[in-house]
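---------- Forwarded message ----------

FYI, see the Ribose-5-phosphate isomerase A record below. Original note from H. follows.
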Amino acid sequence: MTDPATIDLSKDAAARAAVQLVENGMKLGLGTGSTAKVFVDRLAERVHAEGMDLRCASTSKATADQARELGLVVMELDDLGWLDLTIDGADEVDPDLNLIKGGGAAHLREKIVATASDRMVVVADQGKVVDCLGKFKLPVEVIPFGWQSTRTHIERVLEELGMAERPAILRERDGKPVLTDESNLILDLALEQIHDARALARGLSSIAGVVEHGLFLNICSLAIIGCPDGSVVEL
Ligand code: 5RP
């Protein structure tokens, strides 16, 4: 287990490198989570130091609040239209740059923003890099109406893919269901290894009560992996 201070240094290294990808005049997507938060801090420093003119769309209320407090311009995605670049964190990154996201329950907006951008770049520490996706429980956002029926459908899809008896766990905090920014629920799928991510993504997307799953396939074009010594590795 890597200690938290080492992970913080790694996140900072990744964030500093990602800030260098930002150009004056860009329309930028801002991610959610602790690494994205460090990125927003570093971004605001550069914007103020260089007097940059940026307009940002946020993937969550939390990031929008942070960015506005730091003096960044945050607008609705629909008012900005297409974005030049989105920088976000990830829960897992595989060698093909496929991701699991949604640890912060924001993957729906994160996917909308990332896929409305010319380019999505992930910032992460080395602990997020995996050979095969699935160790991190896969978040699936579901509509509250009939969510238990939706869970049954999800479990059937898993069974069809040979992932039988994998529980879909309702995400809770302080004994209450976690609600997303869209007031939906999150089911976390304990899968261990996802051998056919495309088939799983198709199966989950075919279920009526599923709003969005946390598999980001062919969306990310670069992952900047920070190291505690301040260096980065690009995938
Ligand atoms: C939120 C996300 C985050 O990007 C992901 O959970 C990584 O977060 P962190 O940088 O805190 O590890 O997908 O929905």
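H. also flagged this: Residues 134 and 193 are 4 Å apart (CA to CA).
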